[in-house]
């Protein structure tokens, strides 16, 4: 097993603990209680920031016996959990926060889990290094291991909320901590992770939940879907399977001796002490059954505790996604890709798309909504592109795009389906083509002579069904849209909203055409 301190070198530069008596405010129980009681009651962001400060300080201070140091870390983490839940609920609430508030919430949550993971991993390393007095705290070790692994898994999850980049050093510590749990024969030691949270956990369960989340293609999910995926993984985690050698049930693998992201087992792995193979096990059939049940309009099973406010349709989509990526057969591309290297002019958002389709000949690259990307591959269904310089934080799954290949004059309408940030200002994206000949149109609203709505018609040959990109709220189930084109009058009878984005909806209509 690789030493945790070795893994932590890529994560922090702080030294080992020293000796002597602790000169720290939290060493006094009365002072510790006073400081926790003084945390801001109405500002959970500030309270988390203070708790992170205390965690860092308890980790770095000299003189603490291992048992007391661990008790203080657990106490600080317990105090943080109510704030963490509050901020998570705000982040995924019905009322979407402003970009400023969203960034504030994300920074607090990601920062907290990163600090907690680091502090806990340093505490685990006291046992790895055989520090004097560590054996006196061995009763706390199962809980310590569970919280360490959960903190790192949460850190990775929140990194995926921004589509990365994922820090491999985090995986290095995650793997080393679990390897130590196995070495101490504590991988299946049961403990209650947090008071008030139903069900016991084990280090192995936390390891599998973190690993299965990573192989579930979170880079192709919206933030709320990432959260739902994690909750579904938690609900079915007891069915996951783990082994030390390849087998048909083990679709994925990792090496505990490496700082690596878990991967699909596309070929036979070379045996080694750190090799761990894993898969969904019986959860594959369970998640498929859930997806099928919800597809036909079923309700969420009462035993599936995902939290309040999740629509069955949203859960069904995520369950279908998980089943697709957990299956032994890797998801196949619908169309063949062809490698290319060319420039692509890009504008984004509903207003940006309408602007260029409304007659703009080219993009003004001083415009905030204008970017130049590099196409790496194309297919009948879309593009794979590199974003060499991100402008702002708008890029996310579901973003609406207008794209113009270098040297071309037409605009292609697309939507972002996958984002993987490779550095702070660089990313790789997968784009689905919605229409190669989008038409900006004005639609009259039937029965309301004075009202017209603008939208983008996604032409699809002579098909009787049409899709139209509209601003949110324009689509109404009982309200036709009409448009005259040449000698013909087109009536669009509403069917359903097929997809929603931050600033647009794509609605399906049945199209009827008559001569004017």
Summarize the structure.
By secondary structure, this protein is α+β, with helices and mostly antiparallel strands. It has helices at 4-8, 29-37, 44-60, 66-91, 99-128, 141-161, 168-183, 203-214, 223-236, 283-295, 312-326, 349-357; strands spanning 241-243, 252-255, 263-264, 275-279, 338-348, 370-379, 382-387, 400-405, 412-423, 426-435, 438-445, 448-458, 465-470, 481-485, 488-500, 505-515.
| Annotation field: number of helices | 12
pLDDT averaged over residues? 87
Number of domain modules: 4
The count of strands amounts to 16
Shape: elongated
The side-by-side strand order for the widest beta sheet comes to 5-6-7-10-9-8
Low-pLDDT sequence parts: 12-20, 360-366
Main sheet record: 6 strands, antiparallel, barrel
* Strand-residue proportion: 15-25%
Question: End-to-end span in angstroms?
Answer: 78 Å
H and E string: HHHHHHHHHEEEEHHEHEEEEEEEEEEE
Specify Rg, calculated over alpha carbons: 26 Å
Helix content estimate: 25-40%
Structural class: alpha+beta
